[in-house]
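User: I want to check something. If I give you two sequences, will you return the structure for each one separately, not as a complex?

Assistant: Yes, each is folded on its own. Here is the first sequence with its structure:
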Amino acid sequence: MALIVRLAMWLLLLLSAAAVAGEGRVPSLWERLQGDRLQIHGFASVTGVKTSANRFLGSTRGGAVNFIEVALNASYQFNPRILFSGQILARRAASMSNGSPVLDYGLVDVTLAETVTGRFGVRAGRLKNPLGLYNETRDVPFTRPSIFLPQVIYFDKLRNMILSTDGLMLYGDLATRYGDLSLTLGGGQAVLDENVEWVFLGANYPGKFVPHGLTWVGNLWYSAFHERLRLGLSGITSTLGYRPGQSAPDLDAGQMQISDLILSAQYNAEHWTLTSEYSRLPLEWRGFGAYFPYRKSTGEGYYLQGTYRVLPTVDLVLRYEEGFADRRDRNGVQASAALGGLIPPSDYFAKIWTFGVRWDINPQVMLRADYARHQGTYTISTRENDPAALAKDWDLFALQIAVRF
């Protein structure tokens, strides 16, 4: 942890100094090493979080700086048809992620056919899942609409499984007089960690989840008016097998079927952007034993978000989102009763208002501040919290500095 903090702070200081120096400076050795084929970039961010109750990424009422991201990415254009690309990311998010450097993505992109109006190709390796508007770029602070993405769809408590797949994806782009179409279809192995057990089993029992068969993922996008209007449909389906440890209490070797379907819409004007997404998340637990309380549910989440550009360097964002562990039990009463009232109903839904401001000091340095008013705790992890002791109504404040090169 200390190494990650020091690395992030040094990178922030060095990049901020370089950015403030402005134009007219002598190109650095780093910049001179890059050519037309090789591109090397990176970013770092440090975020402080304070909550009025509950824990989110390690935050408490006293506040904490437990959310740190440092990344280095590179791409190499081997020839006009073949591109290699990858990124190493160190992400510290309290107990959710320990800050160890990992391969965020690493792929080869091969263009199989290309015309004036279209392109068809294939990508292979560790690939970002093309889900919704933000999943493929969710790790870059500058591409997020706020410090934290809408949690009812882009769960940070389940980030790694949503983020990427080890496999292969086919893609195609087509430009027409009525707008542009883009299609991606692929499959591979899900990338799992302990957070999957905390979310779907409620605790880290002895044993682990492993991929069972292939994860399938795809999307279809339509854009028009020079991408002012974007409409999308994306989805993923995966089966996970649970291998219980010898001391796993009352848990058999079960399977989980997980699917997620996301509808997306966005309109961009000169000074404002309006965005909305809807997610349907069917879940099925099979074979976990007679004492496991869950069998089937259909999660649901949606949000409406507006961004207004007050100045070229200052944005304001306002968002309202709702999410439910089961759309047929929106107040959580049935799920709470099934567990004898040990878990309060508010653990099964979330209603969140978020207001944020972004200031781009220059193209390399960004400051952000967010305030979120929460009702319900569906979006936070039991890995950090005792579900029986969570407060239903709570506030979250976050401050972030981010740099890139």
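And separately, the second sequence with its own structure:
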Amino acid sequence: MDLAEWDERYRAEGDSGASLSSTATPLLVECASQLRPGRALDLACGTGRNALWLAERGWSVTAVDGSPAAIDSLRSRAAQLGVTVDARIADLEKMEFVIRPESWDLIAMCYYFQRELFEPSKQGLVPGGSIVSIALLIEPGKENSPFRLPPGELRSYFDGWEVLHDREGRDMWHHTVAEIIARRPEID
């Protein structure tokens, strides 16, 4: 889907946060539950299921998405929950959001894959910071999508990092995905 289609989808969902945008991603929950709350960046956040979960647990969260409807929903849900999320509209494909070096304790890229974001995201973590990434794998009929990757590619971005979780297979929605939790070395 392109950005306009995502915006329409989020607009149709409204503030309810229905469907897959209502609960935090289990892999993010697993990772963040083992960390002391700090600064988190949620890239391609949608309506904020992960950002809101983190904010409810004391994280200082910045959430970025290119869909104004998604960000409006996130802001509304944050207000309802009484939490603060710095929610920003930015087209990640156009690199409209700058990931500042050594600024984040945790970066999440869940169900969004953009090759150009990996290096800035890795540099955006403080030493010892963690990244959680889940990306769709190439499947028959979907080989030409720039938002899917072949098996083994996600892991290749984290050579020299401590990999805490590395899995390829089906998720709870029966998508074929690659998942990783990787920690930036204390000394590069």
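Because they were folded independently, the notes below concern the second chain alone. Confidence is low (pLDDT under 50) at residues 15-21. The first strand starts at residue 39 and ends at 43.
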